[in-house]
Amino acid sequence: MGSKVSASTVFIVSLNLIFFVLVSSQTPTPMCPQDLSPCEGETTPTLPLTPSTRCCQRFQDLSDIDTAVCLCQILKSKRSMIPSYISLNVVASIFLLNCGRNYTNYNCV
């Protein structure tokens, strides 16, 4: 009887340790920048986010893929500002390339 209790206790403790290691090893993903005023496209009506130096700095803490995801979220919210014949992927790739980021295969859908 005692061996069954200790075996199940060891199993539960081991399982808890595995979950603890998995949860604590994940780093939080940085959030999309909230203040995008330096990015607002005043000179280019088809590009609601202008990749200026100050704008690109807003995304400096994000990886290339996180920046692409963030840009897609922003562009989707501003879809009415972009002509329908222009793909969100094209706008995002232009922005990423102008900010010196690697274009990723992320698809704005």
From TrEMBL:
The keyword Secreted does not apply. Residues 32-108 form the Bifunctional inhibitor/plant lipid transfer protein/seed storage helical domain. Keywords: Signal. SMART domains: AAI. Residues 1-25 form the signal peptide. It comes from the Eukaryota. InterPro entries: Bifun_inhib/LTP/seed_sf, Bifunc_inhib/LTP/seed_store, Hydrophob_seed_dom. Belongs to the plant LTP family. PEARLI1 subfamily. This is Bifunctional inhibitor/plant lipid transfer protein/seed storage helical domain-containing protein. It comes from Hibiscus sabdariffa (roselle).
